[in-house]
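Data availability (excerpt). The following record was deposited with the supplementary files.
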Amino acid sequence: MRSLCLHGVFLFLLLPAGLFGQGGDQLVYRFTVEGIQGRTDAKPLQKALMDVPGVLEVTFIPECTCFKLVSDHPLDRQTVEAMLADLGRMLTGDVFVSDGGILTVPTTPPLER
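Predicted structure:
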């Protein structure tokens, strides 16, 4: 299943933006959410995310247990995390962006001695 998700990520990054229904300044974000394993789990979150200003479309992709979110403005990782936190959910892993960007999990620098 993991290889299916990774394969899907590569397709997501390689396919032309038009295939994702993207136009103008819209960006597509792909991410996983803790505790979401199937469509039944995803439906309430999908519906709630559609009420967030700037969100144009939200689709759950069962093959990788991830969401595809289309936004009319650029988002950073903290914004995606905050959107989910406001809905009682937590982002897991990296966020892949249709422009080729990856919003990675922040790492804490080692403490200086």
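Summary of structural features: The two ends are 43 Å apart (CA to CA).
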